[in-house]
Design a protein that fits this description.
The complex is a heterodimer of chains A (114) and B (115). By secondary structure, chain A is mostly beta strands. Chain A has no helices and eleven strands. In chain A, β4 and β5 form a beta hairpin. Chain A is globular and about 40 Å long. Chain B is mainly beta. Chain B is 0% helix and 51% strand. In chain B, a hairpin with a 2-residue loop joins β7 and β8. The radius of gyration of chain B is 14 Å and the shape is globular. Chains A and B meet through β4, β5 and β9 of A and β10 and β11 of B.
Chain lengths: 114, 115
C-alpha cells in the first residue's frame, strides 16, 4: 500500500516564487492535514480538511492555501514564497472510521526559500 | 488557545533504564484521543501509543505505557528497558472529535539513550 505520498521530496524556491506541494492518500481517509516543522521544533498545523470540499485553517495558515476537490488529494499552495517558509512540510491523513484514528504521514518535503 | 505542551526539550537515559516524558494539554471537549509519536532522524513519524479519553485504563504497548490523568489534563509516556533505538524526538498529540477534528502536536522532547 502506498499510504500517504508527498511530492516533491526537496525543493528550492526563490523569494516571490509560487509552488504547490502535492499530497495524495489511497486509504479513503476523510481527514487530511498539512504541517510544517522548523528545525528542532514540533509540527505546526497549517490547514486541515474533514472531507472533500471542506477545509479549515490551523495554527499557522498565513501565506498558504489549500483545496480538497477529491477525497484522495490535498495540495498545499505557496503563492509568494518567503524565507520564513523554509521548513519541512508533512502531509497526514486519518479516519474516525478506523478504530484508532491513527494519523499516517507522508515522508515530508524539505523546502528552502532563498 | 487549545494547546499541547511538552516541557522537557531534551532528556537522557541510560540503556535498560526507565524514562518518563511529560505532556499536558488543554481542551474544552469531551471526546478526544491522545497520541505519542516517535520521529527518528529519518523524519518518519511513527505512532508509539494512543489513549482514548473516555477510557480510564492507561494504554500499554510492550515497553511503552502512559499515565493518563484526565482531570489534570496530563498524558505522560513511560519507556521501560530503554534501547538505543529509542533515541528520537517524541511528540505528544491531541485529536479532538466534538467540533474541530484538529490533530495538534506539542513541541517535542529529544530523547537520547546512552549506551
Amino acid at each position: 500500500n502506498a499510504g500517504v505520498t508527498q511530492t516533491p521530496k526537496f525543493r528550492i524556491l526563490k523569494i516571490g516564487q509560487s509552488m504547490t506541494l502535492q499530497c495524495t492518500q489511497d486509504m479513503n481517509h476523510n481527514y487530511m492535514y498539512w504541517y510544517r516543522q522548523d528545525p528542532g521544533m514540533g509540527l505546526k498545523l497549517i490547514y486541515y480538511s474533514v472531507g472533500a470540499g471542506i477545509t479549515d485553517k490551523g495554527e499557522v495558515p498565513n501565506g498558504y492555501n489549500v483545496s480538497r476537490s477529491t477525497t484522495e488529494d490535498f495540495p498545499l499552495r505557496l503563492e509568494l514564497a518567503a524565507p520564513s517558509q523554509t521548513s519541512v512540510y508533512f502531509c497526514a491523513s486519518s479516519s474516525e472510521r478506523q478504530r484508532n484514528t491513527e494519523a499516517f504521514f507522508g515522508q515530508g518535503t524539505r523546502l528552502t526559500v532563498v | 488557545a487549545q494547546t499541547v505542551t511538552q516541557s522537557q526539550p531534551e532528556m537522557s537515559v541510560q540503556e535498560a533504564e526507565t524514562v518518563t516524558l511529560s505532556c499536558t494539554y488543554d481542551t474544552s471537549e469531551n471526546n478526544y484521543y491522545l497520541f505519542w509519536y516517535k520521529q527518528p532522524p529519518s523524519r518518519q513519524m511513527i505512532l508509539v501509543i494512543r489513549q482514548e479519553a473516555y477510557k480510564q485504563q492507561n494504554a500499554t504497548e510492550n515497553r511503552f505505557s502512559v499515565n493518563f490523568q484526565k482531570a489534570a489534563k496530563s498524558f505522560s509516556l513511560k519507556i521501560s528497558d530503554s534501547q538505543l533505538g529509542d533515541t528520537a524526538m517524541y511528540f505528544c498529540a491531541r485529536f479532538t472529535m466534538d467540533s474541530s477534528y484538529k490533530l495538534i502536536f506539542g513541541s517535542g522532547t529529544r530523547l537520547l539513550v546512552r549506551p
